[in-house]
């Protein structure tokens, strides 16, 4: 048997429609897309691995490492397919996850719909015992009551337990003792908030530990099955998971804290885009990731995606912050909308075309797949418009039925609006593209940025089909479609560092700052973060220290990056200066002239990562040699509003420096890049496609 080697790495990304596989064999990439198997998600990974190792001419035993990301945890939360979970909390706080923050995210909506709590009221149990905000015990834990609760949980058929006590972030002793008592009587997983999300704000913390407990049995079972079947296949190599913050963690950690995987797939895409930005020296980038189920947009500055400490899943209102389920974990910050290739098109009560968030997924899929889907999806519209070749979709693995797409589009949308199939398909795609453009504008404005200042990096199976039109709407002059764009997130997994972010909330005013205590706290956080990283990395580790600070009385805080060194006697003056500098960067000026206005630190963060190899730098080229298409196809052109003859070129036949004049379609196995009449395309030295707006100074 051939022994495995660490220079053969495989990334596997399970999406809502497709499972993407990317195999890097000593610098040569092999990739494929297979339809996601909902009943047995690991089967799609095994099927994809079989394809790429056959193409590469290697055996499963030669794979040195597998890096995996998945939307399974996200889908379980959205679709409410998790375990029957019990919540144990402090007496008097039973309804925190239902009362939320009492914020009305749509102030004038009389029919406001709040997300239903993951855990119904009858499955929430309370116990006496109280920890104060400073971490002091105010009331001892009622251990006898916990014994009785354990008996009720054992008799109730529960599959998981979440424990969330008030101020457990400041002192976890009560939560740990409660877990110890319950473990003596229960054989089901128990999650405590002090380990899952040791941060202030009880609603977010309780909701996060509930989400972790809710998906934990399902994810642990899936990951165990995956490892077993990989070994049976002959791939007896380490398996690591990518988490929402963009780093790699062990399968064991992922099984214990599966809520950290909620945004793992999109995180891989952001890392992929950041790697492309670093390769070409691009400091301002917007990544655009459109797959089969959703589209994600992320701002990348100085070669790093923006990050946050909390995000929402399952929003009941698409763009309304506060309408979803808050998850309080480190995450790459992006905006996500239900606009993938499988998103369903429909007509609302006002006669307007709408798309998503409902998706046809892989089962039954869009109407053109011929797998039982009858409702029109965005892929159906793209097919009718001529963007896709029905005989060469997914490298010919899936034959598309154009007549079925036309029928579905007319029945559900066109006939209601008295439009023909072509006009209806154009309307569907315009709505999709405008929704994504609006999402990008909103995301940029919320971060104080101008979206048109950025270069776009487009990837995912559907993004290259829509990228040029999206750039037209956003005023963006340049867009890169990288090589391997169709499986971009899976390739991003291979670029991800081993990394983990440890957090701890400890409210401290600068007037009462004690350097020795804080140094001890940070040392503990560094030890915790580095221990996770050491499960997969043996080289040098670097730590990023961040203090989340605010003026006393403010509701939210800003991140203040700090040097990785112990605090000394001048710590207060340095922290004050750094806070005011960052506050001015965020809001234009620091607050001055108010006597006694205190500055306080709310949360400390330590992010540990291993050092990744430097990437080879490339210069963008505008091309000199014009490449003429050998064939053409009729494609609906959004600029002229009519069908035009588009040149069709195979990506593999193009060389660095070749320039393709739009309109054209550049075809490859996992996707196609539509070059509208407003753009030309130039092949770069690394094989990437650069779309350049005609007449621009790019």
TrEMBL record:
<feature type="domain" description="Acetophenone carboxylase-like C-terminal">
    <location>
        <begin position="530"/>
        <end position="683"/>
    </location>
</feature>
<dbReference type="InterPro" id="IPR002821">
    <property type="entry name" value="Hydantoinase_A"/>
</dbReference>
<dbReference type="InterPro" id="IPR049517">
    <property type="entry name" value="ACX-like_C"/>
</dbReference>
<dbReference type="Pfam" id="PF01968">
    <property type="entry name" value="Hydantoinase_A"/>
</dbReference>
<feature type="domain" description="Hydantoinase/oxoprolinase N-terminal">
    <location>
        <begin position="9"/>
        <end position="183"/>
    </location>
</feature>
<dbReference type="InterPro" id="IPR008040">
    <property type="entry name" value="Hydant_A_N"/>
</dbReference>
<protein>
    <submittedName>
        <fullName>Hydantoinase/oxoprolinase family protein</fullName>
    </submittedName>
</protein>
<dbReference type="Pfam" id="PF05378">
    <property type="entry name" value="Hydant_A_N"/>
</dbReference>
<dbReference type="InterPro" id="IPR045079">
    <property type="entry name" value="Oxoprolinase-like"/>
</dbReference>
<dbReference type="Pfam" id="PF19278">
    <property type="entry name" value="Hydant_A_C"/>
</dbReference>
<feature type="domain" description="Hydantoinase A/oxoprolinase">
    <location>
        <begin position="205"/>
        <end position="497"/>
    </location>
</feature>
């Amino acid at each position: 048997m051939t022994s495995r080697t660490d220079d053969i790495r495989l990334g596997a990304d399970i999406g809502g429609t497709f499972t993407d596989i990317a195999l890097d064999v000593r610098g040569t990439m092999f990739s494929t897309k297979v339809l996601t198997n909902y009943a047995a998600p690991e089967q799609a990974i095994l099927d994809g691995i079989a394809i790429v190792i056959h193409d590469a001419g290697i055996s499963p035993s030669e794979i040195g490492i597998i890096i995996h990301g998945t939307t399974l945890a996200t889908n379980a939360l959205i679709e409410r397919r998790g375990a029957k979970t019990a919540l144990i909390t402090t007496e008097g706080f039973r309804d925190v996850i239902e009362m939320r923050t009492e914020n009305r995210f749509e102030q004038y909506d009389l029919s406001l719909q709040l997300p239903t709590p993951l855990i119904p009221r009858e499955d929430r149990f309370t116990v006496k015992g109280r920890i104060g905000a400073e971490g002091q015990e105010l009331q001892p834990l009622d251990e006898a009551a916990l014994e009785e609760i354990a008996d009720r949980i054992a008799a109730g058929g529960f599959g998981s337990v979440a424990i969330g006590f008030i101020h457990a972030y400041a002192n976890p002793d009560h939560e740990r003792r409660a877990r110890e008592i319950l473990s003596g009587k229960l054989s089901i997983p128990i999650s405590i908030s002090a380990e899952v999300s040791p941060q202030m704000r009880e609603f977010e913390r309780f909701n996060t530990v509930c989400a972790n407990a809710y998906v934990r049995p399902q994810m642990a079972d899936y990951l165990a099955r995956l490892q077993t079947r990989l070994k049976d296949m002959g791939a007896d190599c380490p398996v690591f998971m990518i988490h929402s913050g963009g780093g790699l963690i062990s399968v064991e950690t992922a099984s214990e804290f599966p809520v950290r995987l909620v945004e793992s797939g999109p995180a891989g895409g952001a890392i992929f885009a950041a790697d492309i930005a670093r390769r070409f020296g691009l400091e301002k980038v917007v990544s655009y990731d459109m797959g089969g189920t959703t589209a994600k947009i992320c701002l990348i500055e100085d070669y790093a995606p923006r990050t946050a400490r909390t995000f929402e899943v399952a929003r009941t209102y698409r763009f309304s912050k506060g309408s979803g389920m808050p998850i309080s974990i480190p995450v790459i910050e992006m905006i996500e909308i239900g606009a993938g290739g499988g998103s369903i098109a429909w007509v609302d009560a006002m006669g307007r075309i709408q798309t998503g968030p409902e998706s046809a997924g892989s089962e039954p899929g869009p109407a053109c797949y011929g797998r039982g889907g009858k409702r029109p999806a965005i892929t159906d519209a793209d097919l009718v418009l001529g963007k896709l070749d029905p005989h060469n979709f997914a490298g010919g693995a899936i034959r598309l039925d154009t007549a079925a797409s036309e029928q579905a589009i007319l029945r559900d949308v066109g006939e209601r609006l008295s439009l023909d199939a072509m006009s209806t398909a154009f309307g569907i795609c315009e709505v999709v593209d405008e929704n994504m453009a609006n999402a990008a504008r909103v995301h940029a404005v919320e971060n104080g940025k101008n979206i048109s200042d950025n270069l776009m990096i487009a990837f995912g199976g559907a993004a290259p089909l829509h990228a040029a039109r999206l750039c037209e709407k956003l005023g963006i002059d340049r867009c890169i479609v990288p090589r391997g764009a169709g499986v971009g997130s899976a390739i991003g997994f291979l670029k991800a560092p081993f990394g983990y972010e440890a957090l701890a909330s400890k409210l401290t005013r600068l007037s009462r700052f004690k350097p020795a205590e804080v140094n001890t706290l940070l040392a503990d956080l560094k030890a915790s973060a580095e221990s996770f990283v050491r499960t997969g990395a043996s080289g040098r580790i670097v730590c990023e220290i961040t203090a989340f600070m605010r003026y006393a009385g403010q509701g939210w805080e800003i991140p203040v990056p700090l040097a990785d060194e112990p605090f000394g006697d001048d710590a207060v003056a340095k922290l004050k200066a750094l806070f005011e500098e960052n506050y001015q960067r965020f809001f234009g000026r620091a607050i001055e002239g108010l006597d006694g206005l205190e500055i306080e630190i709310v949360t400390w963060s330590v992010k540990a990562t291993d050092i990744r190899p430097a990437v080879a730098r490339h210069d963008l080229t505008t091309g000199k040699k014009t490449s003429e298409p050998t064939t053409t196809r009729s494609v609906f052109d959004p600029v002229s509003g009519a069908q035009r003859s588009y040149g069709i070129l195979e990506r593999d036949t193009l060389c660095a420096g070749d320039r393709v004049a739009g309109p054209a379609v550049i075809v490859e196995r996992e996707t196609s890049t539509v070059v509208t009449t407003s753009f030309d395309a130039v092949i770069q030295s690394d094989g990437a496609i650069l779309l350049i707006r005609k007449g621009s100074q790019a």
